[in-house]
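fyi for ur records
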Amino acid sequence: MSNCFIMHKSWHFWLVGSFSGLFSGLVMLLLYFGMNYIANNYYSVYYIFIYLFPLVSLWVACYLLRQFFGSGVLRFKHAFRLSLFTSVLSAVVFSVGMYFIYTRLNQPAISARSTIIESEYMFGRQGLSYDEIQDKKEQIQQILTPTSIAFMYFALNIALTPFFALIIAIFARRKNRFIE
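which gave:
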């Protein structure tokens, strides 16, 4: 049986997927905090780069596996599995990093973020009573915890994972060493 048929059982598969996932998660963290300083708001169009970067890392992972460990051959199912593994690991690294940063390194950012959201919400709703305003502030503060922020980013990345894996697997597969 050739290496092509048991690719997911080889150490190359796990090595490429692990390094690509870790690298992707760390770059996503850097992009996130870079966008915070560039955009100066939390609703910027630039944040789409955080969610599109895994496409680049998935493609690189499939390319590395195909070219260096697969002799120029990569089947669809192996590319899909590698993309899923890399993307899930990237989401885990990104979410754990977000949790760590918001609990240890950048705690005031959450209160600043909740203040911005509260002020934008109150500006749009001029006729609210004091009790309604306090209730909304409590809801916003309950939603903006490090755990909920990390979980939100993890859930969004996991929701995008199958689509990204499918796209990359379609374009990364190669049945033989010659271009089809």
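The chain has one domain: 7-172. thats all i got for now
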